[in-house]
Amino acid sequence: MDIIFYHPFFKAETWINGLQQRLPDARIRQWQPGDNGHSDYALVRQPPVEMLQGRKLKAVFALGAGVDDILGQLREHPEMLAPGVPLFRLEDTGMGRQMQEYAVYHVLGWFRRFPEYQKQKTETLWHHLRNRKRSDFSVGILGAGVLGRSVAQSLLAWDFPVSCWSRTAKQIDGVTSFHGEQQLGAFLSSTQVLINLLPNTPQTQGILNRHLLSQLKPGAFLLNLARGAHLVEADLLAAIEAGEVSAAALDVFNHEPLPAEHAFWSHPDIAITPHNAAVTLPDEAMDYIAQAMLRCENGEMPEGRVDISRGY
Fold first, then answer.
1. Domain named D-isomer specific 2-hydroxyacid dehydrogenase NAD-binding: which ranges (predicted)?
2. Cα dist. 84→81, 196, 230, 305 in Å?
C-alpha cells in the first residue's frame, strides 16, 4: 500500500512515522511537487490540485473534521479527484471531547453570569446578579453530526434543555429535534444559547445573520464553533447593539488570524479564541486512518465518508 501525505503546517515526520508504526507494510512518503509516482491513498489538508489530479486513488483522507477547503477546490477544479474516489473526514478522533469542554465552559459561564461579574470587577462593583433558571436557559445546536451530538450530550448532563436543528431528521436521546427549513423558526424561537456546528457549504455560508439572530429568545447568546463563513460579523455587532444578543464566543472568523483592527478584539461582550476549540490529535487521528485504510483494503466502507454533493 502506497500513501502520500501533504499538510501545509503539520510536521510530516510525526505523521509518517506514526502511520508506519500502525501500517508496517505500507510505503509512506511526503508529497513533493513533481511527485507523480504510484499511490493508493492520500492524506491531505488544502492539497495542491496537482497532488491528486490524475491519480487512481482508492481513497483520500482529509486531516480535519471540516472538508470545505478541498470541496471548494473541487468546485473550481472538478478534475482534481477522479469520479468515485471516496473522500473521508475525521469525524471525532478526540475533537468531540474538546468541543464539549469548550461549549460547557461558555454555557455554564453565561448561565452563572461569570462574564458579567468579571465586568463588575473592573468597576470595583460588589453586586449580586439574579440567578437564571436552568429550565429557561435552553440550548439550541445548529448541526446534528458527530460533533453536534457530542456537544448535546455533554450539556444534557448539566440538565439544560437541549434542542438540535439539522437539514434532515435526526434523533438524539433527550434532545428535542427540529429539521428542515420549515422547522428552523420554531427551533430558533425556543433557543437562549445558540451553538453553531454546521458544516460549511454554499447553503450555510452567512446563515448566522441578523434575520436569524433576531428570531432567538431575547438577550440570547451565540457560540460559533464551526466556520467563520457562517457568521455575518457586522450583523452580530448590530444584534448586540440592539440587545437581541447579549454576548458571543467565537473561535472562527472570516479572516484568520483576526486582523488587529477588527472590532471584535475590543468588544466587551465578545470572547475570542484562535480557532483552537478542537484541534486534530495525531494519535487518535492516525488510529482511525490506519484502521480505515485496512477496511478499504478488505473491500469495506469505513465511517466518515463525505457526501461530496451535499458538502459534508
1. 106-277
2. 8, 31, 29, 12
The whole-number pLDDT of residue 48 equals: 94
Whether the per-residue pLDDT at 23 is higher than 90: the answer is: yes
* CATH class in words for 93-270: alpha beta
Catalytic site residue from 45, 106, 149, 227: 227
Burial, 178: exposed, middle or buried (Cβ in 10 Å; 0-12, 13-18, 19+)? buried
Q: Which of 275, 295, 305, 310 is catalytic?
A: 275
Let me know if 179 is a catalytic residue: no
User: Residue 88: CB partners within 8 Å, gap ≥ 6?
Assistant: 59, 60, 61, 62, 292, 302, 304, 305, 306
**Environment class of residue 66 by beta-carbon count within 10 Å: exposed (0-12), middle (13-18) or buried (19+)?**
middle
Which superfamily is assigned to 1-91+280-308 in CATH? NAD(P)-binding Rossmann-like Domain (3.40.50.720)
- Residue 311: pLDDT above 90? no
The domain spans of the chain are 1-91+280-308, 93-270
Reported confidence tier of residue 65, pLDDT bands at 50, 70, 90: confident
What is residue 129's DSSP assignment?
Answer: P
pLDDT of residue 199: 94
As a whole number of angstroms, the distance between CA 203 and CA 214 comes to 20
Residue 33 burial (CB count, 10 A): 7
Euclidean distance between CA atoms 30 and 121, whole angstroms: 52
Instruction: Output the average pLDDT for the chain.
Output: 96
pTM: 0.93
The set of cell numbers assigned to 188 is 430558533
The 10s digit of each residue's pLDDT in 163-185 is: 999 999 999 999 999 999 999 99
